[in-house]
Amino acid sequence: MIRFILMSLSVLLASPVAAQTASNCAPREMIVERLASKYGETRQSMGLGANNAVIEVFASDETGTWTITVTSVHGMTCLVASGQAFEAIAEALPAAGNDA
Asked: Quick check: 27 and 75 in contact, CB under 8 A?
């Protein structure tokens, strides 16, 4: 599921420059500190998106809040989604040939 979300976001945010112009962007250090101090969120997963943008999922085990960020190669991080009821799930891959 996370892989699908990351792939979808990388397609939607193919241009990190466009995402940086939004008011929900700041240097990565500021975003990470704010997510930790205000929401108790820590990085749960990450992946590489279009144009080498880093896509990260932050979440809090205590409150269940979550945030997805995209960081450009220039270090500018944008908040792209957030919500509640985060659950970490470690599902096994389906057997080869199984279309589960």
From this structure: yes
